[in-house]
């Protein structure tokens, strides 16, 4: 009742400067010099948040969000929930339409590490969750931390063993852990200038959402922890990701088509390091992926660079990968990936799946230093078609001690297969252009790298090579 009375009296308030220690629970920032009014703002401290990192602040945070939502409904403009510089321990909090979490650069939201901190429904296991909301976001320069290291059951330099809540029956397997931030069925999302740290599972998850901008976001997950993906774009359209720094153990940016298509994804000006794939389409790939642009991306010491992993009968087409600098290396084979700078594959996941198709891909202005070659593999039921590789500088050398000579089809398909390393390994392709490509090989004879192109004419048709150079070099 108190919050309602506060909202009804808002029109009598005036506010000339924003302060985190304001005695008013609800402040309107107004300026007569701008045609659009500034957003409303509410501090979680004024709703009783302790901010000591020990006591749970879930209730006051949710009260602040609810009051902000009521103010949005009344005043028809966005409302910011302010987190002053402190640490706020919380169970799941639910973001609502028109509300933006504004986390000060010295503030941290800490996700709880107990099962009871999350809803009963496993699909809603997030520290921050927005469902069927519009005009929502997160900003302010601060941090949301999932305390993922508390979910490590046993630390391992190869791959950490993680706690799983599968005993609940809510989900099965070792991936039964909470995600960090989720937007489900939302539209008009803006996530900017925030640090998303140590997720226990996936970090930033878009599900059936539309019109999302992710800008100036830093994502960090423990490098040895599996399944801590950076950004998963699932069944979501019209997404822009720009100026992001992603350093994590598992896939960094991962579009998935589970219940619907994924259209119009743009990723630019990003830096990525991962023990799995930097960019990975799939492996959930039941529907269409189309109209993607990846430009000006730096990939460092990743297990796989640019990857299309179609396993469930979907189709991927009309994509450009441009101005990309990548280095890929071997890690322990328990991680999917064999140091491929580019990996384009389609094959049935299992006997119940069907092969999808991949077509109209352009790779242009690519520089790669890698321990393995480019792998392009269609399948009998789904060929790759109209692939173009233009202006590429490829350097192949070894600097780790993990074994080579393996082709990785995982997940499903043929798993790991013994095969000699090649600069381009190709199978089941109809239409490929390789133009202005320089390929350099380490001259270390112990590596037995002497095969620039590996393909069988029976499965690769309509291949064009123009200005293709391959040579060894002195390390």
UniProtKB/TrEMBL annotation:
This protein's UniProt keywords: Glycosidase, Hydrolase, Signal
Domain Rhamnogalacturonase A/B/Epimerase-like pectate lyase: from-to ranges: 42-101
InterPro entries: GH28_Enzymes, Glyco_hydro_28, PbH1, Pectin_lyas_fold, Pectin_lyase_fold/virulence, RHGA/B-epi-like_pectate_lyase
Cleavable signal peptide: 1-21
GO BP field: carbohydrate metabolic process
Molecular-function GO terms, alphabetical: polygalacturonase activity
Similarity-based family: Belongs to the glycosyl hydrolase 28 family.
Name of this protein: Rhamnogalacturonase A/B/Epimerase-like pectate lyase domain-containing protein
Organism per entry: Anisodus tanguticus
High-level lineage: Eukaryota, Viridiplantae, Streptophyta, Embryophyta, Tracheophyta
């Amino acid at each position: 009742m108190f919050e309602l009375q506060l909202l009804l009296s808002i029109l009598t308030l005036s506010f000339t400067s924003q302060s985190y220690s304001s005695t008013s629970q609800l402040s309107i920032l107004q300026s007569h010099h701008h045609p659009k009014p500034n957003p409303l703002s509410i501090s979680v401290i004024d709703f009783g948040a302790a901010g000591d990192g020990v006591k749970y602040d879930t209730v006051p945070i949710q009260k602040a969000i609810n009051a902000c939502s009521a103010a949005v409904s009344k005043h028809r403009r966005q409302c910011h929930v302010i987190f002053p510089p402190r640490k706020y321990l919380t169970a799941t909090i639910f973001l609502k339409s028109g509300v933006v979490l504004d986390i000060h650069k010295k503030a941290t939201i800490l996700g709880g590490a107990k099962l009871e901190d999350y809803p009963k429904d496993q699909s809603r296991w997030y520290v921050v969750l927005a469902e069927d909301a519009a005009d929502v976001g997160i900003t302010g320069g601060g941090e949301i931390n999932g305390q993922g290291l508390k979910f490590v059951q046993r630390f391992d330099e190869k791959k950490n063993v993680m706690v799983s809540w599968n005993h609940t029956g809510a989900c099965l397997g070792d991936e039964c852990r909470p995600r960090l931030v989720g937007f489900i069925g939302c539209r008009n999302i803006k996530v900017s200038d925030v640090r998303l740290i140590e997720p226990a599972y996936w970090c930033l998850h878009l599900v059936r959402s539309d019109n999302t901008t992710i800008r100036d976001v830093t994502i960090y997950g423990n490098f040895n922890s599996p399944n801590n993906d950076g950004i998963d774009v699932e069944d979501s359209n019209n997404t822009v990701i720009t100026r992001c720094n992603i350093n994590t153990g598992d896939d960094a940016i991962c579009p998935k088509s589970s219940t619907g298509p994924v259209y119009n994804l743009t990723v630019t000006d990003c830096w990525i390091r991962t023990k799995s794939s930097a960019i990975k389409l799939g492996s959930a790939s039941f529907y269409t992926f189309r109209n993607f642009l990846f430009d000006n991306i730096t990939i460092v010491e990743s297990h796989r660079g640019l990857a299309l992993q179609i396993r469930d009968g979907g189709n991927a087409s009309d994509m450009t990968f441009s101005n990309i600098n990548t280095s890929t290396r071997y890690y322990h084979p328990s991680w999917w990936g064999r140091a491929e700078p580019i990996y384009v594959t389609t094959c049935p996941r299992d006997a119940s799946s069907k092969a999808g198709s991949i077509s109209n891909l352009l790779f242009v202005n690519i520089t790669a230093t890698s321990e393995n070659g480019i792998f392009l593999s269609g399948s009998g039921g789904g060929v790759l078609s109209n692939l173009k590789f233009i202006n590429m500088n490829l350097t192949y050398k070894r600097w780790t001690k993990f074994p080579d000579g393996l082709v990785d089809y995982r997940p499903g398909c043929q798993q790991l297969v013994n095969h000699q390393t090649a600069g381009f390994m190709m199978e089941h392709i109809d239409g490929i252009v390789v133009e202005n490509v320089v390929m350099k090989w380490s001259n270390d004879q112990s590596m037995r790298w002497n095969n620039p192109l590996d393909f069988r004419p029976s499965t690769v048709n309509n291949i064009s090579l123009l200005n293709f150079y391959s040579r060894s070099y002195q390390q």
